[in-house]
Amino acid sequence: MSSKNLCEMDVSNEAEPKCPSSQELAIQKLFGSSIIFKRNRHLRGDRIIKDKANTHYRAGMEAVDQLEFERAVTCFTKAITLQPEQTQFYVARAEAYLQLCDFKSAALDYKHVCFLEPQKKAYIHRLAFIYYLQGQCYCDQGMFFEALESFAKAIELKPDFRPYHMRSLACLTALGRYSDAIRLVTNWLESDTSSADLFTLRARLHHQLNQPMLCYYDLKAALRLNPSCPEARALLEMMEQGAECSRQQAVTKAVEGELSDALGKITTAVELNPENAQYYLLRGILYRRLKDFTAAIEDLMLAVEFSDDGAKHPEGEKPEESKDLEQDAHIQLVLTYNDFAVHCFTQGFYSEAIMLLTKAIHEQRDESGLFINRGDCFFRQKEWLFALADYQQAEELDPQNTTIWLRLAVIHNTLGLHSYENLNFQEAADKFSVAIKYNPGVAQYYGNRAKALSRMQRMEEARQDAMCALILDPANDELVPLLLRLFPGCSLSDVISSGTAQTVKAQLMERIQTWKLAGFPVSRLSNKLERMVPRHDTDSQSETDESTQDPVRSKEQVSEAVKKLLHQRLSLSYTGPRIAPLCITHNLEPAACTSKRPYFWRNFSGMGLNC
């Protein structure tokens, strides 16, 4: 470039005045036209302050090297006073505070550092570490609440660092806040990969809170992940031993008749080992004996499911013990359905009783007593044909049971009465004949058939039936009009003392004797079931106190309980009463029973008929 151009540039530069900065204006205002500050740029105030701050900083670092941390803090503080925007000064003072175990001051300095440079994660992590150290010191002094606050701050700054969480968990445990500790571990299990150690840890927390069932399932989960986990296996074995001890105590209490205490013991066993089918079976039996049928059915269903899901042989076959347990659970389940139906029947809730008995029949189709009981329920509802069908099914299963014969006799007599009322005398006579076949010792059956035969002008047969009725029940005043019509001009003594009457009596007695010898009222239940449910003779009916039953408050409550039990149960993937006797009159007009005789308990022998 030519000198001319340089001159022109210089002139142009001189022609353009330079605008002084605000700092220069301040200096000019303070010192006037003195040019000392203009020529000695190194003597400017900001440089002097910076140099002095650096001097204090170096002095502080020398003090740190000499382990004089208090002097170092003083030096760093002076440096910060001169230059409060320098991050390294706060960091140095914070580290000096840290050496003096002044965690609060160190945390304040690092918080300011994080404010000045929020993009640097290293400062944030260092602040979290300071909170961790502060919390650890609180722990050593037994100040667990303050320690928990410090660890919480550390976790907030570095949430993915597990040791901070563990120390927080230790503080929660020391403070007895096991529920909060469980929530913390649960969050780990949900957010991280599950591990046997975490499940074992949560199991121990549940154990501290006396939540054995949750503890059990956590231990099972831990062993599934690590079958050789010694801590989980040791705690699980301890719980199983405690469960077996409680079961033995429950059996002892049950034998002594203390059913409520036995229920408490077996409930403890179930909580300690909630996958043992035998425990559910025993508790279901106790619930049934205590008349808590809903709980009994739930437990017995669980017993069936657990025994079905139990251990199997490598070939895929169930062990004999598991098969026997499942069979026992099925038997007890059927008994409970039946007993619940008995309870409903005694309160007059026949529809609910039918639902329960239908469920029991679905579980065990070869038990005649269930069909007898359901037939009696249908009978009370005046569903004669359904009752007859159930009685006939019971007879097919147990053809020699006289208890069933008595019911078949009653139902045929009842059907005969309806046919008689409809003026269908031949059909009525046939029904009465079937009733006599099933129970030849009832005078009313003969009297009813005699009336039907007399309407058909079959007088000779009608007279024989009238004689049979008179022989069986000579004090029955209702027979007098019939006898006077069939034997005009003869007194009752003449009729009863006639040769024909003696012949009829002999035949009648022979027929009744043959009937008695042919019947064997023995239940077809298995021996095991017979031992579980004591039998009672029909003669003991009047000795049973009905007040031992808990009355059902309302039909709506019973109906809702039955429907929920049978239709709304959720799956896992976890000597009883009999129905009261029917009281049926044998007149041409069937009437309801008004007897106040107490209810008695039977073993699958139905509800009884007063014939």
From TrEMBL:
Sequence ranges of Basic and acidic residues compositional bias: 529-539
Cross-referenced InterPro entries: TPR-like_helical_dom_sf, TPR_2, TPR_rpt
Region called Disordered, residue ranges: 529-557
UniProt keyword terms in alphabetical order: Repeat, TPR repeat
TPR repeat windows: 53-86, 128-161, 368-401
Record-given protein name: Uncharacterized protein
Native source organism of the sequence: Pangasianodon hypophthalmus
